[in-house]
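I have a small job for you when you get a moment. Can you supply me with one protein entry, sequence and fold together? It will help me judge whether the discrete encoding reads sensibly. Write everything out right here, beneath this request:
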Amino acid sequence: MPATAACGSADESDPVFPRKRPCASTAGRTPSHSVDIPAYSATWPCEPRTAGLARGLVRAALHTWELDGLVDRATLITSELVSNSVQHSGGRLLRVGIALPEREVVRLSVSDRSTAHPVPCPPDLRSEHGRGLLLVEALADSWETDIRAWGKVIRAELRTRNTRA
């Protein structure tokens, strides 16, 4: 299933996935009244194969922005967030986004219809599951969940320059 482009100016009229900020679309169209924030997003079915599509979107954006050094971390974080959404949201669709709000920050996001707040749990050593948010916590410079009336947005940020001690 092809991705649905999801760029535009701030718009709360979409009850499934309202847009938060202006962004440049893959076709290069940017609303003339908005601030240019390089960003890409797509809406896909909430199913396991979407993790691969999301990794491709993130990989392409980082390559376009010449930030290939972040690909491994960013694709793993995105995979984990998408997998969480697929496993726990119960929704039909999810939206994946990547933005460069500042030259030093890459922001990854996954939105779904669930209003359940994700909570990292200690992993069960006998299970293959349950480590996703622990990985996000370890790999991202910061992450947060924004619960909305229609669902949630989970964002993770990566610094383009390693600021960790």
User: Anything to note?
Assistant: The CA atoms of residues 122 and 130 lie 8 Å apart. The first strand starts at residue 4 and ends at 5.
